[in-house]
Design goal:
Layout lengths: L2 E5 L4 H12 L3 E6 L5 E2 L5 H14 L6 E4 L10 H24 L5 E5 L14 H6 L3 H11 L2 H22 L6 E7 L5 H7 L5 H6 L10 H12 L10 E4 L3 H5 L5
Parallel strand pairs: 1-2, 1-4, 2-3, 4-5, 5-6, 6-7
The chain binds 1,4-dihydronicotinamide adenine dinucleotide.
1,4-dihydronicotinamide adenine dinucleotide (NAI) binds next to helix 1, helix 3 and helix 7.
Protein name: 3-alpha-hydroxysteroid dehydrogenase
Pfam family, one: adh_short
């Protein structure tokens, strides 16, 4: 059975992914700020390097899977933190762990994006280009200057999705598959905090998917389990929306 590192494993979607993989017999190395095999802060390069070193040690240098779930929503303490955790907390960790993944026979990475990324397709905010050019400090400054956490959030997820799709093309020959799951509204502590926020709560509560309900973390874990499995052996660079029809409602001609 495989060894998979899961970021954000202490809560919500990451916890559901970790549980489902463990129940299927896989070994999971959880990475989180607390209650995890690897306790690390993915908001800094130092924390990401510490996390990668520990994962490599725990997996004896050969990793079969990486699932990047750690993220902050619109109630995060700052927009710069959203940029650092949501974008760089995934992209730098992928870079650091890619050599260990490339040693496996059927390696796969799944990133948790968001249906919110689609909000940036019409007019991408300039901070996206700063993230894509790997300039963390400039992207953080741009995000804090804008002081609109919902834009920092959608921008971080758009940049992350674009980065991963580019990476899927350039690193495809290494055999490491890389895909993105884009959730809609999923009932987790992050979503609960957004619903209760005085700035965004009403919009979040009114954002109802065509299917008529919010999703559960286990429904995202189902998609992740598929993408990480040999059944998805030819799925690479794809975005799977698990959103109750939200993206179809918002952007039905844009695919
Ligand atoms: P959550 O708040 O339940 O879990 C997030 C986890 O990430 C927590 O365990 C937290 O400690 C960890 N984390 C945050 N900052 C960290 C840091 N600096 N270093 C290490 N770990 C850190 O949130 P949820 O909802 O499970 O979110 C998981 C992912 O799904 C996030 O990337 C989020 O943006 C994404 N997502 C969630 C949606 C939702 O409606 N819940 C919708 C679309 C995307």
């Amino acid at each position: 059975m495989s060894v998979t590192a899961v970021t954000g494993s202490a809560s919500g979607i990451g916890a559901a992914v970790a549980q489902q993989l463990r129940e299927a017999g896989h070994t999971v190395i959880g990475i989180d700020r607390q209650q995890a095999e690897v306790v690390a802060d993915l908001s800094s390069s130092e924390g990401r390097k510490k996390a990668a070193e520990q994962v490599i040690a725990l997996s004896n240098g050969q990793l079969d899977g990486l699932v990047c779930c750690a993220g902050l929503g619109v109630t995060a303490p700052s927009s710069s933190l959203v940029v650092s955790v949501n974008y760089f907390g995934s992209t730098e960790l992928i870079d650091l762990l890619h050599p260990a993944l490339a040693k496996s026979t059927n390696p796969a990475i799944t990133i948790i994006g968001s249906v919110a990324a689609g909000q940036q397709t019409a007019q991408p905010h300039p901070m996206i280009e700063l993230m894509l050019s790997n300039d963390e400090q400039a992207a953080r400054t741009a995000a804090d200057e804008l002081a609109q956490p919902h834009i920092a959030y959608s921008a971080s997820k758009y940049a992350l999705t674009m980065h991963c799709r580019r990476l899927a093309v350039t690193t495809g020959s290494t055999g490491v598959r890389l895909n993105i799951v884009a959730p809609g509204a999923i009932e987790t502590p992050l979503h609960e905090a957004s619903k209760n926020d005085p700035r965004f709560g009403e919009a979040v509560r009114n954002f109802i998917a065509p299917i008529g309900r919010n999703g559960q973390p286990s429904e995202i874990a189902d998609a992740v389990s598929f993408l990480q499995s040999p059944q998805a052996s030819f799925v690479h660079g794809s975005i799977i929306y698990v959103d109750g029809g939200m993206d179809a409602m918002m952007r039905n001609g844009n695919f």
